[in-house]
Amino acid sequence: TDSPDTNSGPITIGLSAPLSGPAAALGENERNGVQLAIDQINQDGGLLGSRKLTLAAQDNACNPTDGVGSVTKLITQQQVSAVIGALCSGVTLAAMPLAKRYQVPLVVATSTSPDITTAAGKGGNDFTFRINPSDATLAVALSSYLHKAGDVRKVAILAEDSTYGRTGAAALQKALNDKGITVTGVDFVAQGTSDFSTQISKYRNNGTQSVALYISGADHLSFLRQAASARLQLPVTGRVELEGQNLEILKDEQFAGSSSVYPYSSLIKTPANAKFAKAYESAHKTPPTYESFEGYSAVMVLADAISRAKSSDPKAIQKALVKTDFTSLTGGTVKFDAYHQAHDKAFILQIKNGKTVIVSDVVT
Amino acid sequence: MDATYTWELLANGVVLGSSYALLAAGLAVIFGVLNVVNFAHGALYMLGAFAAYFFIPLTGYWIGILLTAATMAILGIVLQEGLLRRLPPDGAFSRSMLLTLGLAMIIQNGAIVLWGAGPRQLPEDSRPQGHLLLGDVIIPTGRAFIVVVAVATLGALYLLLNRTQVGRAMRGVSQNPTAALVVGISPERIGRLAMALGVGLAGIAGATLTPVFTVSPQMGITIVFKVFAIVVIGGLGSVPGAVIVAYLVGMLESFAGGYGSAMTQSISVFLFMIAIMLVRPQGLFSTEVRV
Amino acid sequence: MTAALHVHEPEETNDVMSRKSSSPLHKWLGGRHLGPLLPTAAAIALVPAVVTNDYFIDVANLALTFMVLGTAFNLLYGYVGMLSFAQVAFVGIGGYASSWLVTHTDLWQPVAFLAGGGVAALVAAVVGAVTVRLSEGAFAIITLSFTLLCAVVAAEWTGVTGGRQGIFGLPAPSLSLGPVDLVADTPRSYYYLLAGFTVLALWAMQRLVRSSAGTVMIAIRDNEPLAKAQGYATNNYKLAVFSFCAFVTGLTGALHVFRLTTIDPSIFDFYLMQVMLIIVILGGAGTFWPVAYSAVLFAVLPEMLRMADEARLIVYGALLVLGLLFLPQGVGGFLRARAMNRQLRDMRGGRS
Amino acid sequence: MPADRHLSVSAFSAGYLSGVPIVNDLTYGFASGSLTTIVGPNGAGKSSLLKGIYGLTRWCKGSIRIGDRDITALPAWGRLQAGISLVPQGRCNFPHMTVQENLQLGVYTLPRSNRAVAVAEALDQFPALAAQRTRAAGNLSGGQQQLLEIAMAMMVHPRVLLIDEPSLGLSPKARCQIFDKLKEITDHGVSVVMVEQNVIEGLAASDIAVVMVDGRIHRHGPAEEVLNDPEMKNVFLGGRPDTAAPGREPDRRRHDDDGI
Amino acid sequence: MGVAALSDVEFTLSTGTVLGLIGPNGSGKSTALDCVTGFVRPDSGQILLDGESIFGKAPHLIARAGLVRTFQTVKLYDQLTLDEHMSLSLRGLYKAGRSGASRRRSAERKRATSWLVEFGLEQLRSAPAGILSYGQKKLLALAAVLVTQPRIALLDEPLAGVNPRIIDLIRDAILQANTEGQTFLIIEHNVEFITSCCSEVVVLDAGKKLAAGPPSVIWDDPAVYEAFLGRKGDGHAG
Ligand SMILES: Nc1ncnc2c1ncn2[C@@H]1O[C@H](COP(=O)(O)OP(=O)(O)OP(=O)(O)O)[C@@H](O)[C@H]1O
Ligand SMILES: Nc1ncnc2c1ncn2[C@@H]1O[C@H](COP(=O)(O)OP(=O)(O)OP(=O)(O)O)[C@@H](O)[C@H]1O
Ligand SMILES: [Mg+2]
Ligand SMILES: [Mg+2]
């Protein structure tokens, strides 16, 4: 395939994300973050001497069939310099061979499957890079925290039936067991489940002391709403976004002691993050979510690589990416290891007196 | 796990069943009268939820529900007049499947464009407050209202279908459109009524859930299949059958999920459906007539 | 009262009363029905010559896949009248079986693909044995539940299916013949593989519907009790067609997932089922070639609509609705009805 | 004979495909208050004529009048309200509903207050149905369903009753009763247009005969005259041409002699 | 439903006869036929063909054994042409024919065509059956059975809706086939036809056998007269 004109004209960044189907909300968040980053870079004068960035976003509906079509189109037709994607792990795994075949970097920002890292870098796929942390490290951090905090000894896990939910739940279950915390049960609910009354009743009646959540989007909020109105007196933990609409619910007394491990929080006090969070809120009326943050970061990491490569040629960008040493919004460092996995910071968050506070941060 | 738990699961099953029943009754009416498999039912349910999301803060719970039902009923009439009526009568079944599939795509993705894909919830002060205590079982008021609305609506629907001439006509049109013409029924009128009822019921189902769940454009995607199955198991076109099966499924899900895991919950529903269909292929509550 | 005016394509008539004799080979290949197959095969062969961009080749790959999937579903739904929601399950079963075989054994890929089809056919035979005798609705619901169950099993049976993330990094099909190494590792080389398979599958399926068994299939759809009264073992026919279609579908599924290089439980989503429904109904259920061609349209259309971005699926939905309003019997149905009307008009004309 | 019971068609064509008339340019006034029977070969277009008058064919041309009123533009249910009622050929009831419910739907167009009476009347007139009142109509025998459909059409007391082969599937006994009943309602002024293949009995019960061939009226006149016309008998009404094997005639006579 | 449509009915159809099965509406004639051909499973009893039980066998097996039927509510493949009906019937039932009947294609084709011609359907040969008139449908269904020359043809009101002129043809055909060894069971309400065609008549009433015997005897039976024929009316005059 022809490589894009490397000297002039806009530089196109590709994004493959679910913009329809059950995961559409997450894809939308990610795109918002990506778009914001691109806008900011363009406002600051673009890259490589005033070349602007443009976004080519394709819907992958969270299924590999559409996913392969979207990525092939981005690479071979829209001639993007790099691809960000593909949110759903299954699609990312299908997109990775394409990145390798066409030698275009694929920056994975939100997919959680551990196999992505196994296959990248030393694993054989030099063109795949992942900036979001692996669930295993997050789970270990969280369980140490829970163990130390000391008041929760029986945890139930509620996860969505997706790679995110399943790998997250498995990692946490293992980490909790290692710390001697009992897991009273793992429930996998289909994405798009709206009724959680059964689970809520169960937690109320089987001695569960805290619920670890690995569910996303509308389902997540829906669970919290129902738990609140059913007067479920339990702290939640796991991967809970302690912000926005969630926080409105969680600050109530009944959820006292809720905690979460998250690679991002809008509360993080770095200047870069403050700027990002403010810009995002003014554009979308809500604080940025994890997906928006990762999308934003992906663009910034790519922009950094493009500047260092002094070229928008995908192969050159790949070479530059390998050598990335970039300070992220959250104050961590994005540096790819042999498996092209970055190790940014993650945070243990807690609700205290109705406010989210950062308890500690960990390097993942 | 004690008696309270069992009662709690029972209560959950009734609430869940009530939602399914509202949806299934609507689908059964539309299928029964128009021979239309309404794949847009989930999308319409979502629209109902959004309508209630906008109405309830303005008008309060009960009027909001009524307004939603009315709006959705009117939408049903519009859909009937604008789309479904134009399908030629023979082979309506498969065509309707596709037509409503297209409609579902338009509504669902239209909603994403219009309102974004993220979840929304009713503001705290427009939700029904508090909860009921039955013994030790806590039932949030919003959930109790679902049961109240479902029982009232379905009761009225039963009376309409079985005690009135119009209801009989609705069943008649589906069983033999020519015979309906011969006895002087206007199929256009009955078709409009069926769509108004069916879509209205979907709207009510969505509306009653608005205060309890969150509202998002994706909320109706997967529910269609379950409800479709419920309707077939109840006996195609049999509204009471659909309602009874809806409650059975609600109960089953609640207990299977309560005593097993969420996976047992979904698996048990599929197995239940398969088992019933093997034993009674014509559905639980349909009269068989000779070949 | 108003009996349906459309019958199947007139050239499908396969009555014992009017068959011209021709050479045995020609006859076995399908005789005069080879007609549309040859130009179609030629068109398929021409695509790589005129299309240069890999993306378009990939869309063509998808079109071929849809062609076979749609036609197989058409055989079931359009010809025999069985609304099987299990087709997508067979795509998945074929995909999983072949993926597992290739990643866990040393089985040669083509054999693994065939085995994928075989496993799908076997499962279909078991499911069909208890379901084909049931009513249309019961059949639809059981096959639907079966598909949903498959999705759960695929997600839960981690040891075999790889669980939620499935089996990925599937190797490209390859064939070494002495000095020649054929590897289907680019969209273009994969296209040749798929094209060969598609032509073969279309030939086999059209051979079936144009044979006397094809007429029996329509007869079963139209009036099963009568077919029974005429001595046809309708359940056996249904079971055979169900299993045959499962085989073709499973094989297609295997090829499909090796093209994607990955399979996960999302293969059981409604997505492919929806595609099949659209192709068959708008193509004209019960007509062979219009359905096959509409598969091309509905592989290309969503990709073309990628330009519409946000509104992609809205426009797609609107096109479905409009298509249905203006061509309610699908393209094939429309052509068929027109031909039939002309014929009837001639008949009447001759009378008075 | 009140004028509003006079059904007439003029330049009337009807069919299923555009450009292919099955009923071909027919002009005829059906005598009011009498029993007109249409006979003709299979596929002559008799049923299409009745369906066309009731508005069930795919297209039609020309005009249909009841008395002075042109009803061509009305939909089927509008024509029912205008006083025409139809019993189509073959099965035409609500198979999953009980006989009682079928009858209740039969009076769909009557004012609410008259309905119960009409249903009771029908059950009274058709004891065979009364016995099956709670059965699903689809489970009745063929003849019972035929009776049910006739009952449903008669309940609304139409001005013009179009009835397509009422004798279909009825036992001789039931057949006689139906013909009697039809005669009886013509005595009350109803115009009945009947299609019959049971030609001899049908015409014997009728006032006027219309012979239809190929979508046109071949001949019409007093029923008795047509029935006894040898040409009609040979060509359209069956029975043996005189040259036929002699064995047949005695058969019929024997059955006559047997007092049936 | 707890109501028996038939109870304790027994009759024998001997090879080479034309048996008429008559009775008032709802007396159980069609049900009896459904039982014999396997479409309804009787609660109890025996159905023997050549001394072998066919009780509970699948309909298609019974058809292949030589019992070929028509339905009272006519059943056709709406979308298939008349020609296809005939060939489907021939192909499906080739085992059902009498031994010795011609299995030659050309002969079959001729026979099929001649039936369509006889019934005035030849112009519609390549039209779909769904567009036929009621009587034409009945005739096509009948032709599709007769053309296979089955051992035993079971006809459920084959003449209802058929023009009298064609009734005469059918009578001749049945009698002709009968002399060639075919057996018939005919449910009919046409008294004249039963009289002139059947050698034996069985009368059912309310699910029970009321009478049996040759037509001339049957018509004299006052019980039959009461249940089936009703009063003597002008309608019956030849
Ligand atoms: N599946 C069924 N359920 C309930 N009742 C039935 C069923 N099948 C038949 N019957 C009843 O059995 C009786 C006999 O019906 P059948 O059709 O055999 O009568 P028939 O003698 O053929 O009458 P006809 O001459 O009117 O066709 C009828 O009263 C009918 O209502
Ligand atoms: N739905 C239809 N579409 C096309 N042609 C039709 C349709 N229905 C009937 N016809 C044709 O119209 C002609 C007349 O049919 P019609 O039913 O009016 O005949 P008929 O005189 O009532 O015959 P019968 O005595 O057999 O009932 C037939 O040749 C038939 O093929
Ligand atoms: Mg007729
Ligand atoms: Mg009968």
From TrEMBL, chain B:
Coiled-coil ranges per UniProt: none
Cellular component terms (Gene Ontology): plasma membrane
Topology relative to the membrane: Multi-pass membrane protein
InterPro entries: ABC_transp_permease, BCAA_transport_permease
Subcellular location: Cell membrane
Membrane spanning stretches: 14-34, 39-56, 62-84, 96-117, 137-161, 193-215, 227-249, 256-279
Superkingdom assignment: Bacteria
UniProt entry keywords in alphabetical sequence: Amino-acid transport, Cell membrane, Membrane, Transmembrane, Transmembrane helix, Transport
GO molecular function: transmembrane transporter activity
One GO term of the biological process aspect: amino acid transport
Family, similarity comment: Belongs to the binding-protein-dependent transport system permease family. LivHM subfamily.
Protein name: Branched-chain amino acid ABC transporter permease
Organism this protein belongs to: Nonomuraea deserti
UniProtKB/TrEMBL annotation, chain C:
Keywords: Cell membrane, Membrane, Transmembrane, Transmembrane helix
Topology in the lipid bilayer: Multi-pass membrane protein
Subcellular compartments: Cell membrane
Transmembrane in keyword set: yes
One term of GO molecular function: branched-chain amino acid transmembrane transporter activity
Record bears the keyword Transmembrane: yes
Gene Ontology CC, one term: plasma membrane
Transmembrane segments: 34-52, 59-79, 85-103, 110-132, 138-157, 190-209, 239-258, 270-293, 313-335
PANTHER family with a match to the protein in the record: HIGH-AFFINITY BRANCHED-CHAIN AMINO ACID TRANSPORT SYSTEM PERMEASE, HIGH-AFFINITY BRANCHED-CHAIN AMINO ACID TRANSPORT SYSTEM PERMEASE PROTEIN LIVM
Protein name: Branched-chain amino acid ABC transporter permease
Source organism (scientific name): Nonomuraea deserti
Source lineage: Bacteria, Bacillati, Actinomycetota, Actinomycetes, Streptosporangiales
UniProtKB/TrEMBL annotation, chain D:
Region (Disordered), start-end ranges: 237-260
Domain ABC transporter: 4-239
PROSITE patterns the record matches: ABC_TRANSPORTER_1 (PS00211), ABC_TRANSPORTER_2 (PS50893)
Tagged with keyword Lyase: no
Gene3D superfamilies per record: P-loop containing nucleotide triphosphate hydrolases (3.40.50.300)
Biological processes annotated in GO: L-amino acid transport
SMART domains per record: AAA (SM00382)
Family of the protein in this entry: Belongs to the ABC transporter superfamily.
Protein name: ABC transporter ATP-binding protein
Native species: Nonomuraea deserti
Biological classification of the source: Bacteria, Bacillati, Actinomycetota, Actinomycetes, Streptosporangiales
TrEMBL record, chain E:
Gene Ontology MF term list: ATP binding; ATP hydrolysis activity
UniProt GO cellular component terms: plasma membrane
Keywords carried by this UniProt record: ATP-binding, Nucleotide-binding, Transport
PROSITE patterns given in the database record: ABC_TRANSPORTER_1 (PS00211), ABC_TRANSPORTER_2 (PS50893)
Domain ABC transporter stretches: 1-231
Cross-referenced InterPro entries: AAA+_ATPase, ABC_AA/LPS_Transport, ABC_transporter-like_ATP-bd, ABC_transporter-like_CS, P-loop_NTPase
Transmembrane region(s): none
Protein name: ATP-binding cassette domain-containing protein
